[in-house]
Amino acid sequence: MPVTPFSSTDPYQYVNGFGGYKESEAVEGALPLAANSPQKCPYGLYNEKLSGTAFTAPRNENQQSWLYRILPSSSHQNFQPVPTSSSQSLTSPTPEFGKHFNAIPNQLRWDPFDFDKDSSWIHSLHLVAGAGDPQMKQGIGIYIYAAGTSMPDKTAFYSADGDFLIVPQHGDLNIRTELGRMLVRPNEIAVIPRGIRYHITHTEPVRGYILELYQGHFQLPELGPIGSNGLANARDFQTPVADFIEDFEDTEWTLYAKFGGNLFQAKQNHSPFDVVAWHGTYYPYKYDLGRFNPVGSISYDHPDPSIFTVLSAPSHPHGAGTAVADFVIFPPRWLVAENTFRPPWYHRNTMSEFMGLIGGTYDAKGAGKGGFQPAGASLHNTMSGHGPDMQTFEKASTADLPPQKVGEGSMAFMFESCLILGVTEWGLKTCAKVQQSYNEHSWEPLKVHWKRPERMGVSNGEKKRGVGDAKDQSSVHDLK
């Protein structure tokens, strides 16, 4: 069955489909007819336009929504910087352009990240890696979140820096956004676009991964020769319906804004979640990874991992088919390729690869001290060689090759980017989770299987030597 058997039931309603125009009203008649901005909106509501792209963006890329709310979002006191000593501060602010990221070619792997029982959502956001600058709207940031408590009552948070792609690993996230409510569970993902305000509660500690996209927005990858269906199907994405709070008398809310990589706060005398109706093309959404429809080889060879792309954010300056961020998953699937090394091959990639594991065991990363574990991560940066560890190679290169189901009960994912990703001090040192012996246990033990042919050509006037000749074994000859 192409759905995840969740342990909790989602109580909310959704509108199905990826992208395109949608509308929702919590009170019938709250959406005005024909005009977006009538002289008087129904029921005394204010209208407000929320723009996720430039007004003049091409029609098929334009993302804007009209909100009809009790009070406009501009009604608040001045923002003030949040002191670093505050329990709601960011523990690792975004570095300024070109500063404080440690760009290193080493392969990195992290042990599972700890829960923080005393932190709520904002303070639990730990920036691990990234590239670019949100002020320039270029690049990405990669976070680990690990919160023990819900956000305080009457608080809301938004990022002006980029879209949040949230990948829960443990615990359900009950998310109230301006446009409606979502329950997002492990093996689901959620995207909350830039600027949309939200509040998160949960009944147990939560942990997971976030990719913040500073430039553009996610879209479904082109299917090309695959045809019109497959991978993540548009119908399986879910957008919340309008749901609002009437709280505007004798009340105080605190609004937190992530802006230019730093955190600010402002007070306001009404709920930010007062949108009674909305329509447009800019909204949050979620997706069940269990509904992904993988494709693969049915004859020979291991295809590129791009066939597992769920969402993509193209980087047009870097060339066609290149992404500033791809979200790729490795779901349960059948392997049937014959005479083929079935795990991923060894490779060096122009793309940087940050991997995480939601649950189960990833078939190409089983060994090594600490291993690749749920709630852990790895980073293989641009042109840093990587691939199966020694034990996986030895097993896969000699195994029988009947049809095989891999990844049962498992879900690994990858944030992939054309950018060289730097690592923060928190990710490299403070978290104390980096596996220092990753290379030592993964690839240094690889064995030499090379066997010199008994009959080899010679060049440059060299005299042919026997296979057992000591000099032959320690030198390399040009072959013809």
From TrEMBL:
<protein>
    <recommendedName>
        <fullName>homogentisate 1,2-dioxygenase</fullName>
        <ecNumber>1.13.11.5</ecNumber>
    </recommendedName>
</protein>
<dbReference type="InterPro" id="IPR011051">
    <property type="entry name" value="RmlC_Cupin_sf"/>
</dbReference>
<dbReference type="InterPro" id="IPR046451">
    <property type="entry name" value="HgmA_C"/>
</dbReference>
<dbReference type="InterPro" id="IPR005708">
    <property type="entry name" value="Homogentis_dOase"/>
</dbReference>
<comment type="pathway">
    <text>Amino-acid degradation; L-phenylalanine degradation; acetoacetate and fumarate from L-phenylalanine: step 4/6.</text>
</comment>
<feature type="region of interest" description="Disordered">
    <location>
        <begin position="454"/>
        <end position="480"/>
    </location>
</feature>
<keyword id="KW-0223">Dioxygenase</keyword>
<feature type="binding site">
    <location>
        <position position="347"/>
    </location>
    <ligand>
        <name>Fe cation</name>
    </ligand>
</feature>
<keyword id="KW-0585">Phenylalanine catabolism</keyword>
<feature type="binding site">
    <location>
        <position position="362"/>
    </location>
    <ligand>
        <name>homogentisate</name>
    </ligand>
</feature>
<feature type="domain" description="Homogentisate 1,2-dioxygenase N-terminal">
    <location>
        <begin position="13"/>
        <end position="289"/>
    </location>
</feature>
<dbReference type="Pfam" id="PF04209">
    <property type="entry name" value="HgmA_C"/>
</dbReference>
<dbReference type="GO" id="GO:0004411">
    <property type="term" value="F:homogentisate 1,2-dioxygenase activity"/>
</dbReference>
<keyword id="KW-0828">Tyrosine catabolism</keyword>
<dbReference type="GO" id="GO:0046872">
    <property type="term" value="F:metal ion binding"/>
</dbReference>
<keyword id="KW-0560">Oxidoreductase</keyword>
<feature type="binding site">
    <location>
        <position position="386"/>
    </location>
    <ligand>
        <name>Fe cation</name>
    </ligand>
</feature>
<dbReference type="InterPro" id="IPR014710">
    <property type="entry name" value="RmlC-like_jellyroll"/>
</dbReference>
<keyword id="KW-0408">Iron</keyword>
<dbReference type="GO" id="GO:0005737">
    <property type="term" value="C:cytoplasm"/>
</dbReference>
<dbReference type="GO" id="GO:0006572">
    <property type="term" value="P:L-tyrosine catabolic process"/>
</dbReference>
<feature type="domain" description="Homogentisate 1,2-dioxygenase C-terminal">
    <location>
        <begin position="291"/>
        <end position="449"/>
    </location>
</feature>
<dbReference type="Pfam" id="PF20510">
    <property type="entry name" value="HgmA_N"/>
</dbReference>
<comment type="similarity">
    <text>Belongs to the homogentisate dioxygenase family.</text>
</comment>
<feature type="active site" description="Proton acceptor">
    <location>
        <position position="302"/>
    </location>
</feature>
<feature type="binding site">
    <location>
        <position position="386"/>
    </location>
    <ligand>
        <name>homogentisate</name>
    </ligand>
</feature>
<dbReference type="InterPro" id="IPR046452">
    <property type="entry name" value="HgmA_N"/>
</dbReference>
<dbReference type="GO" id="GO:0006559">
    <property type="term" value="P:L-phenylalanine catabolic process"/>
</dbReference>
<keyword id="KW-0479">Metal-binding</keyword>
<feature type="binding site">
    <location>
        <position position="353"/>
    </location>
    <ligand>
        <name>Fe cation</name>
    </ligand>
</feature>
